[in-house]
């Protein structure tokens, strides 16, 4: 007989009844193990259940891993989208500031040009007024000269008086006395 664990041949003869009992017990144990192995191999349904349970456990672990990976990817995408949104917002704010700065700059230029034009017109009006006064002093007769000079210096009241005189003249011409 061959020992299955070591491949050695068992001694053929027992040296006593105790030795024989031990050999019989060892042989029964080995035979029981062999029968269990054969029965396990022959139990296809049990092996299929064990394999199914093993696959179910692996599928569960894989599901948990996939969910975790998907959640992590979702957070990563959300973070990147938030960063992109902040970049867009920052660029929009910068563009708005540039437009505002350019508008203020253009407003200042317009204001400066308007002031220059006003100063130019004021200077021209002052020169014209001075020229009118000079001419009035030399060419207008003396009794009327103070009235003409006052009208040149303060044209608004003179225009009002002139408009009133014209209105009276038009009314007199349009509606003559009968």
Describe the structure.
This protein is mostly helical and 178 residues long. Helix content is 85%, strand content 0%. The longest helix is centred in the middle third of the chain and has 96 residues, at 44-139. It is rod-shaped.
In short:
With about 180 residues, this protein is mainly alpha-helical. It is built from four helices and no strands.
> What is the beta-strand fraction?
under 5%
Range of helix content: over 70%
> Low-confidence spans: pLDDT under 50, at least 5 residues?
none
Task: Tell me the span between the first and last alpha carbons.
Answer: 170 Å
Q: Number of DSSP strands?
A: 0
Instruction: Determine the number of helices (DSSP H or I, runs of at least 4 residues).
Output: 4
Largest sheet: none
Q: What is the CA-based Rg, rounded?
A: 60 Å
- Give the topology string: H per helix, E per strand: HHHH
Q: Give the rounded overall mean pLDDT.
A: 85
Query: Which overall shape is indicated by the principal axes computed on the Cα atoms?
Result: rod-shaped
Given helix and strand content, the structural type is mainly alpha
Protein traits:
mainly alpha, 178 residues, 85% helix
List the helices and strands and how they pair.
Elements: H1 17-42, H2 44-139, H3 145-153, H4 155-174
Helix pairs in contact: 2-3, 3-4
